Amino acid sequence: MSRQESVRARKLVRKRNAVAAGDRPKLTRLYKAVLAKVPLPLRGLRSRLVVAFVLVAAASALSTGAVAFREARTGVLQQSQDSVIRQFRTSVDAVVAGVPPTPSQSDLQKAVNQVLHTSQSPGRQVLATHGSLRASAPSADFDKISPELRRSVDTKRAAVFQRVNADGHPYLVVGMPITYTDGQGTRARLSGTVMYLVVPQNTEQAYVEAMVSAIEHATLVALGLAVVLALLAARGVLRPVRALRRATRRMAEGHLDVRLAVDGSDELADLSQSFNHMATALEHSVAELRRLEAQARRFVSDVSHELRTPLAAMSAVTDVLDENAPDLNRDTGEALRLISEGTNRLSGLVNDLMEISRFDAGAAELSLDDVDLAECAQRTLAARGWQGQVETRLPPPGVLRAPVDPRRLDVVMANLVGNALRHGAPPVRLAMDVREERQDVAWAVIEVTDNGPGIAEEAMPHIFERFYKASTTRTRSESSGLGLAITAENVHLHGGRISAANLPGGGAVFTVELPLHRDIAAVEDSVGGAW
Taking the model in full, what pTM does it have? Predict the structure, then answer.
């Protein structure tokens, strides 16, 4: 490689590095865009480690191979070039004495033959020019001599070379001017005669191709080793990560005693140690919360049990006094009325607390029976004297039946209707319907609506919480705030769903859905035909 070619190659490398530095943000965005399109299973840590190792190995192998290839190619070509020029110069020096300053065609041909005879390599061509004279051996192939090489030889006193490709084969073309010195022997002068040597470089090209093949094989071996190392590294990294994932899943399932084995002192070991500390603290905190919750439940249950006996006695006394209330004076009767109302409220609160404590303790059980939901609703309204206050839209008797606990269903409907009567405005409506979800699964839908002011948006998420009262939008209530909470617990105990919402035209609607695991087609036909 000539000096000009070396300078040009260095400039090209610097330009390429500058362009690469400017394109780094674009490459980053491109990497993110490509990563977003990669399927989720290929975005895992194992895949990313393998890809990273392969890319690093490929870049290292290719860069090392490129450097080795460049140096080896330069060495092979330089050695071949130096050997050819040295041998050509020796051959020209041997015959230059017999070439006159102004040679004839025969003189040029004789010099060409002598130079070719001294060359021991096959395939070489020797050409000579002097002005318009041309001589060559073994063939007159002057096409491989470029105009640039001719001009360079005409102006220089040293050998000039150039590599060319002709018909898909590489050639080294060397031009060497013949010079002679003046009488003092101090200055070399051009004689006008130039000798050219065309040497095929198929052997050197074969060496270069062999190096490319060797580099390709070495790159494939490096990529294979990179994949193996990446899998080993991923296995070592993913083992504690997978253990952490299993531990977190078990902790999410409620197993707070899970711990990780800590091996080593790297970042993953620190992470495992931190997880163990967190799990220990969480276990202690949850245990303390459970202890306090159990104490609170036991306290409520004990207090409720302790209050039932005196409340029963107080209720019996107030019942006797209520019978004699007409015979008492006005002040005494008013006082008796207040005592009776307070006793009834306290008795209801104790009963609600007892019910809640049974739900919290997991002691609430269903006594299922296949009942007629419409008939159950009618009994609920009749038992409380609400027939004239509630509009009903119910299926005919015997049409809509479901396996429910009659007592708990009575509590659900009584609480919802009573809540609508106390806090809403007439008309209050009770409706039943069937909603099919799949071919063999449907829901019995119970809706209670009123025409009141509705439920405030801020109260909507808390409407089924215990002791919650939406006092900002409802009139003042003397209830305990446990009715809707008990209703929701009873519905969930049946495997159903309950929700509250506001109607577009005003008023609130409470919807209860109870599962019907049976063929509903006949029920829907009967209900639709009867309504």
Answer: 0.47
